[in-house]
Amino acid sequence: MPSLCAVIFMLGFAVGLAASTTAGTVMLILGGALFVGYWVWWLIALKDGQTPGKKVVGIRAVRADTGEPLQWGMMFVREFLVKGILFGILIGLSFGILFFVDSLWPLWDSRSQTLHDKVVRTQVAYV
After folding, report:
1. Would you state the pLDDT for residue 104?
2. What is the model's pTM?
């Protein structure tokens, strides 16, 4: 998830500010390059209905009604707008409880969908 890159970038930025030396500058540049590289990879991977993590484990997001892989636009809506922004806000408002409910929901759902899958009418399937 892009949040991993944000952590790497912020760590590099903090080291760069704290140690304003050549090593700190290198860490800042490395963190920025990792951040940009991951986002580019993430955006490219979305066209196949897969995030980088889904690609690694051999799964993809598909439409719940037809089983077709999601196109780039719908995948962007699912991953960034719904999971990232909408659920990010709701998770914060629920003090993190929604994160656990959303993550555990597939255990008792007949279609093994998370709550964010239900919102955008998708599910995850093996490739």
Report:
1. 96
2. 0.69
